[in-house]
Write a structure and sequence with these properties.
43% helix; alpha+beta; 15% strand; 617 residues; three-stranded antiparallel beta sheet
């Protein structure tokens, strides 16, 4: 109920501000423009003046009263069975010794012993030769005049080391941003917008690649250590460079429009293939190539130079927001080169490659590889008939496996570090489909044929029919699956095969007759596009409650759009991106932390007492 009241207050604030501003002629400030562009999020709400129309105030009060009464007389039903509830409680009670994560690309949960997961991650860090380096705590030796390793390696020493580096990076980011504001002659109110405060260093976690080995054959923990492969992710959320990374990404993202090989969506390659003439398709087969560990094998300094050179070529097409390219270069370099991260309370540095989890990394990787493409396959137009790439996955057509390998190797040979290598998937026969970006393609008798595709190792996991989501969301999710299958299919026969794949997926997730389910009607959206409306977010309870609130809004002619947010996902409850690096105070004895812990314990006791009272009733 407290969440509902909060959202009602925020909705009322938005509505009052909208009415207040509509009656006045105003010019948006730079800060407001940047906020509307979602460069940063302003979480502070300034209380608006009361609405000029008393009727609005009265109707808002009636809306609040109606929603509160409706929720009080509504009984909430749980979508978990008794066995599922018991299983969930059991999993939550064992989170201190059990590690739960989502697999890489598979979608299913991976449950391992916490010690085993820690050993798997540390093994990846130590066995990746030349990629990571452990940063030992150091101090200045006045006699030697240089930094030496600290002998004391207690937990406090490591925490202080991480805290000092975090503070240093914050100061560097804030100093650079202030200098950018000064050079660009920004208003003083722009400085706090991207100032880094209360940050923490990026942290590493790994996702197990369950699609790379047979999980049913694992008999003991040693099998997972010996055969298991992982994908390292460095989470940069809340890091000192996060805000500057967001600004740089916003500025440089239009560069992808000028990379001819870049695929903007999963259907672009099908459109490009459809434009080929019969003579170009004669005697060729569709094949794909994958760059091995692209992010890890990129030289950061050269990558930054390539991105900025490319930005200089298209400077007129970029919205620099009154920031010079020199300053963009400085911010990008600061974001990508400070590759420090933590794991298990220890500090590490990634020596080569980009963080998979840093916002500018995909743009930097795409532009870096395009530099190699421009110096190889794009130098001679006759050398290439069709080619496209989405980050590290590329496709083309070739007459033989050797010519396909030669084509992709020509791109990798342009890398001066010789770290770019391709894995080529060439069909064994003309009848074989080659998977690529959610579709399977082949060139059969000079005609391109395609259909919807899901990897065999990918589990049949989608939004379940019994999931605590609005019915509209479930219908739209199912429609999207069928729409994707339709866009991926080149003929009626292949379309039916694609639909059958979607049918199996949805039936496995509780949809009895999915093709009829997607035909159900959904609530109509407001047709008056000229009217400015505000959003009211409420937790989803049931279809009946949502329908009653919408009817009340329509009856009162309020310019409000109701958005029902789903409940907490299992991933949010069971998984953590910082399993070994949860925020903690650097002090052993801290009155603030003790007070917060005592307050939290008191809340838990009150909550348990209320549950007992409800059960007695």
């Amino acid at each position: 109920m407290s969440e509902v009241k909060t959202e009602l207050v925020l909705c009322a604030y938005r509505l009052r501000w909208q009415q207040y501003m509509s009656e006045r002629i105003s010019v948006s400030t730079r800060l407001q423009v940047w906020q509307s562009d979602k460069i940063f999020t302003n979480k502070r709400f300034v209380k608006p003046p009361p609405a000029a129309t008393p009727v609005i105030e009265e109707e808002l009060r009636e809306l609040q009263k109606f929603i509160e009464q409706l929720l009080h007389r509504t009984s909430i039903s749980f979508n978990l069975t008794h066995d599922q509830s018991v299983g969930l409680k059991s999993l939550k009670s064992r989170l201190s010794t059990t590690h739960i994560s989502v697999s890489d690309k598979g979608g299913e949960f991976v449950v391992t012993d916490r010690a085993l997961q820690r050993e798997l991650t540390e093994m990846h860090i130590t066995t990746s030769a030349g990629v990571y380096r452990f940063e030992h705590p150091q101090r200045m030796n006045s006699k030697l005049g240089k930094m030496v390793n600290v002998k004391d390696t207690s937990e406090i020493t490591f925490r202080n080391q991480i805290s000092r580096l975090t503070s240093t990076l914050e100061d560097r980011c804030n100093t650079l941003w202030k200098d950018v504001c000064r050079r660009s002659r920004f208003e003083k109110e722009m400085i706090p917008a991207l100032t880094a405060t209360n940050t923490r260093l990026p942290c590493m976690y790994v996702l197990i690649k369950t699609h790379k080995f047979d999980t049913t054959s694992l008999s003991n923990p040693e099998d997972l250590l010996n055969r298991g492969k992982v994908r390292p992710i460095v989470s940069c959320v809340g890091s000192p460079t996060e805000k500057l990374a967001g600004l740089v990404t916003k500025i440089l993202s239009p560069l992808l429009n000028f990379v001819p090989s870049h695929l903007s969506n999963i259907h672009t390659h099908l459109t490009q293939l459809a434009e080929l003439t019969p003579s170009q398709l004669e005697g060729v087969r569709f094949c794909s190539g994958d760059i091995s560990a692209l992010y890890t094998n990129i030289d950061i300094s050269k990558c930054v130079d390539d991105v900025m050179d490319f930005a200089g070529e298209h400077q007129e097409d970029l919205n620099l927001r009154d920031i010079s390219l020199t300053d963009v270069h400085r911010m990008l370099e600061l974001v990508l080169t400070n590759s420090f991260f933590t794991y298990g309370g220890r500090l590490y540095k990634q020596l080569v490659g980009l963080f998979m989890g840093c916002r500018p990394s995909p743009i930097a990787a795409i532009v870096r590889v395009y530099r190699f493409e421009r110096a190889s396959v794009y130098t001679d137009i006759t050398f290439i008939s069709v080619y496209g790439r989405y980050i590290d996955d590329a496709y083309t057509v070739a007459t033989s496996e050797g010519s396909a390998q030669q084509f992709f190797d020509a791109i990798g040979l342009q890398d001066p570090d010789q770290r770019i290598s391709w894995e080529v998937d060439y069909p064994v026969s003309e009848d074989t489909f080659t998977p690529f970006l959610g579709s399977a393609v082949r060139v059969h008798n000079g005609v391109v044929e395609s259909k919807f595709y899901r990897k065999g190792t990918r589990k049949d996991i989608a939004l379940h029919h019994r999931s605590h989501h609005p019915l509209e969301t479930k219908i739209q999710t199912a429609r999207n699956f069928y729409s994707t299958a339709e866009q991926s299919s080149s003929s009626a026969e292949l379309l039916e095969q694609s639909f059958e794949i979607v049918d199996r997926l949805l039936v496995a997730n509780g949809y009895e007759n999915p093709r009829e389910f997607v035909k159900r009607r959904t609530p109509r959206k407001p047709t008056n596009k000229t009217e400015t409306r505000v959003c009211l977010k409420l937790p989803y309870v049931s279809e009946t409650v949502s329908c009653e609130i919408r009817k009340f809004i329509v009856r009162k002619s309020l310019p409000i759009d109701l958005v029902c947010t789903p409940g907490i996902k299992l991933r949010s409850v069971l998984c953590s991106s910082r399993p070994e690096d949860k925020p903690s105070c650097s002090r052993d004895v801290c009155k603030i932390c003790r007070g917060l812990q005592a307050e939290e314990m008191e809340k838990k006791k009150v909550g348990e007492e209320e549950k007992k009272k409800k059960k007695k009733k």
